[in-house]
């Protein structure tokens, strides 16, 4: 899984039935220190009831079967899902000193 | 599967219900130093060297629960042979202590 920030929703009228009634978010992957890393991608809301929203730091699963089953039945065209809201990140030591010198 | 070091943990209260009670750990992958969030299945903790299963199969560690995972810690490394992964010599670590040359 990766930590990411929700940039905002996208709206699509014509879409696969498995995406109906689901939020589709643009998410920006983050390093544990909060810096942006990698490309923005799309993820469906796979944690019903959590109400993740814009600006939230979330946990995103990027494996097809897991993303699809988090959202609904397996066998749907879904390859990424938001599965939790991050409350806190606890590092054993600051990232820089944790990196090999 | 790949080797990594547990460098911290992630706290998440509001999450997919099949993840309730699961521990989310930050793992720095040895090969490229990228950090991933992995679900623990073996009782690993910060500072330990672990190995991580990826892909759909990573969810199977929690069967019959259908936990959404793309990275699951499936082992804590006690010792390894003298191998270099990326810039890291994985034989030269605390968790490999006691491992005499494994040839």
Walk me through this protein's architecture:
The complex is a heterodimer of chains A (101) and B (103). Chain A has helices at residues 64-71, 95-98, and strands spanning 2-10, 24-30, 41-45, 57-61, 81-85, 88-91. By secondary structure, chain A is mainly β. Chain B is mostly beta strands. Chain B has one domain: EutN/Ccml (OB fold (Dihydrolipoamide Acetyltransferase, E2P)), CATH 2.40.50.220. Chain B has strands at residues 2-11, 24-29, 35-40, 49-54, 71-76, 84-85, 88-89. In chain B, the strands form 2 sheets. In chain B, strands 1-2-3-5-4 form a 5-stranded mixed beta barrel. Chain B has a two-stranded antiparallel ribbon with strand order 6-7. Chains A and B meet through α1, β5 and β6 of A and β1, β2 and β3 of B. β6 (88-91) of chain A pairs antiparallel with β1 of chain B.
Main features:
heterodimer, A: 101 residues, mainly beta, OB fold (Dihydrolipoamide Acetyltransferase, E2P), 5-stranded mixed β-barrel, 12% helix, elongated, B: 103 residues, 5-stranded mixed beta barrel, two-stranded antiparallel ribbon, 0% helix, disordered C terminus
């Amino acid at each position: 899984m990766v930590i990411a920030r929700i940039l905002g929703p996208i709206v699509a009228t014509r879409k696969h039935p498995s995406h109906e009634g689901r939020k589709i978010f643009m998410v920006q992957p983050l390093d544990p220190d909060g810096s942006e890393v990698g490309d923005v991608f799309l993820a469906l809301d796979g944690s019903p009831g959590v109400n993740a929203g814009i600006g939230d730091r979330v946990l995103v699963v990027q494996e097809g079967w897991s993303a699809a089953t988090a959202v609904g039945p397996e066998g749907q065209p879904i390859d990424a899902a938001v599965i939790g809201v991050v409350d806190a990140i606890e590092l054993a030591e600051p990232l820089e000193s944790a990196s090999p010198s | 599967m790949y080797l990594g070091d547990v460098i911290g943990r992630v706290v998440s209260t509001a999450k997919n219900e099949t993840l309730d009670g699961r521990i989310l750990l930050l793992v720095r992958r040895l090969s490229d130093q990228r950090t991933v969030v992995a679900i623990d299945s073996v009782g690993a903790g910060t500072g330990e060297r672990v190995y991580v299963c990826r892909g759909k199969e990573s969810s199977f560690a929690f069967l019959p629960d259908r936990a959404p995972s793309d990275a699951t810690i499936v082992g804590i490394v006690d010792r390894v042979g003298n191998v270099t992964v990326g810039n890291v010599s994985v034989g030269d670590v605390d968790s490999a202590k006691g491992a005499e040359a494994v040839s």
